[in-house]
Design a protein that fits this description.
360 residues; mainly beta; 3-stranded mixed beta sheet; 15% helix; 42% strand; globular
Length: 360
Amino acid sequence: MAAIPKYVFVIKDSSGNQYEFERSTNRAYENYENDIGRCRFFIPHNDLKLSSSSVSVDSLSQILIYRNGTLVWQGVVQIVQDTVDGTWVYGETFMATLGWYGVRYNQVYTAAAIGSIITDEYDNIESRSGNFISSKITQGTIESPYISATANNLTITRTLFNENFLSFLKQMVLAGRAEMTSTFAQNTVFNISFSETTPTFSFLRNVGSNKSDVVLELDSEIVDFNIPRDFRDVSNQVKGLAIASGPTVISATYSDTTSNTAWYRREFYPFFNNITAQGELNQRSSNFLEDRKEPRRDMKLRLAQGLVPFDGYVMGDSIKIRINRGRVSIDEFRRVIGMEVQIDDSGIEQTVPILQKARS
């Protein structure tokens, strides 16, 4: 039987003091690609380390989670909930702090590479007094996505109006992935790494590779799976709309014949309120169709006890999945886009990777 891992949940206050809560229960943490990860844990009222100082509500505190001495999750305390039995603590990864700031107002970019736009806006946020990013996060590699099947930077024309920086980064990911084809990989990803000393922000053009030596199979590594098929949002006739200078309404129309045949004609008219140029509207509308022309393709697996989260692979890698049960027959690579871990009170962890089927 595999050894039970040792988890340590630590709160670090604004002065740098660290408090390890060895008696905490109901422990869980999550991490997702291009999104905010979360954690939770419960501290019993009779834990000798629990106090108004160790779990402060007067200033920002951080959370660090260690697995066998390795930092596996890091973020900020977002909610503290006191009850008669003890205190619940909820946190979010440093990715959440990117949403505390906005890009500049009426900032015009004309045919600019995405990486240069992100660098300019990141630098501007860092220059603002009292911001978390310049205090706690290091700026790392910022790359520009390419135009499909080339090494030429994808450029956009955009006027910024104080959009949330986290939301803006997600929009830039979509612009990059809109150039992806069945033969041209561009899984654009932004992230803040976990580090005690130098958590680092990055925006990378393409992340992940096939890990042929990592194979997860039902009745071996996989003990349960959940593969929903949601047909409600299928769209195969997409007309994207936006407002350009003038003002004038601009549009971009895309369709998919194969989806139309399988699911009948399904129209959708998304309005992109932050887009101000035809080129980016084309990219976003095309990407919208690619994401909606088929039912959702995400899946969750529950792994057998003793299997380590991210063992032989990292977020963004593709691992081999083999499932043959009922109407489900899968023997292919699926991309890891998230990880959820729960630790029961005896220390046994339940690991749930979230995977996504590649675009067709």
